[in-house]
Predict the structure of Porin.
Amino acid sequence: MNIKSLLLGSAAALIAVSGARAADAVVVAEPEPAEYVKICDVYGAGYFYIPGTETCLRIGGYVREDIGGGDVESFDGALAVDHQDGSINHTWQKNARFTLKTWTGQETELGTLKTYTEYRMNFGNNYGDYGSSTLAGGTEPNPNAGTAGWRAGNKSSALEFAWIQLGGLRVGADESAFDTFIGYAGNVINDTIVPYGGFQTNVIQYYFDAGNGLSAVVSLEEGSGSDTIDSYVPHVVGGLKWTQGWGAITGVVAYDSNYEEVAGKVRLDVNVSNELSLFAMVGYGSDNNLNDPTNNIDALGRGFYKLWGGNWAVWGGGTYKFNEKTSFNLQASYDDWKDIGLAANVAYTVVPGFTITAEADWQRVGQGAIDNDSVWVSATKKNNVGGILRFQRDF
């Protein structure tokens, strides 16, 4: 056998083996096409399509740390029992909050279908019993002294918003149109030193946009807490707004079905320049059927809407933007009971999404104040000073 015959034979054998193996070849399945998340820019930044649907979803929220001291508003007279001698010490009030928000949007033949939810979880020191009612001016031991002092721990977690809106119709948990439609009282943290209305409630609302900056709202509301409606008759809020490039004029009127009382507010917003914006708001409410105790400004009986003292109240203030990172915010308030509130802060955006705000607050309690240095209910002192430092990361 010569070399040529050997090479030809080997080649024939390789072809035969290759053919046999080809008959048993493994067929690899084609990969299924990946379904990538699609960006939805119809409703603004951050939305994406839920895979397999026409619904756009946005997920966001914030993480916040508040450090408060003094005697004003929600950071009111935080106290602690001294571990060594049992005396009462003033202390910081701290609160960490995680808030999760969702938005959805979808176009339908009846208009835009939207939802909004917001859930808040808190950790911090909270009000508790002090072991003896002598701190409140009494002499008997406190039978509820199970958790003395402002102790840190998990606090409230609450569903703040959960509403559905189709076109102009909104139903669900929201804040009262008495506040949301006319606007909150400034860009300060403690904007309710003189309160301007109730907030969280179940609503059935209808918003109407007439064009040319004219809009309106009608809202049927349940109230909340002790101001929840006491029959089938809802609280009712109506509002009218005219918005232009220079600012806006807004008015709202509310009927409190529990007391059969009426309250209203009118507001003027003015955009003075790109840097400066101002607002002024006045409220008036009837109180013939309300029972306002004169010895406790936080007592029940003001109704859901007219929370200020007496018949009337005024709020005013503004925002000045030094640059794109730094702004100064101011609010002043006064009511018929001669309650006075001042709040001012500086907000600084360190990097996009992270803002530090330092605020100082002063309150002068008018009618019903106890002019002493009681550490038990500091809100009844004639003059109260406090402040808060807030760190907030929005996402």
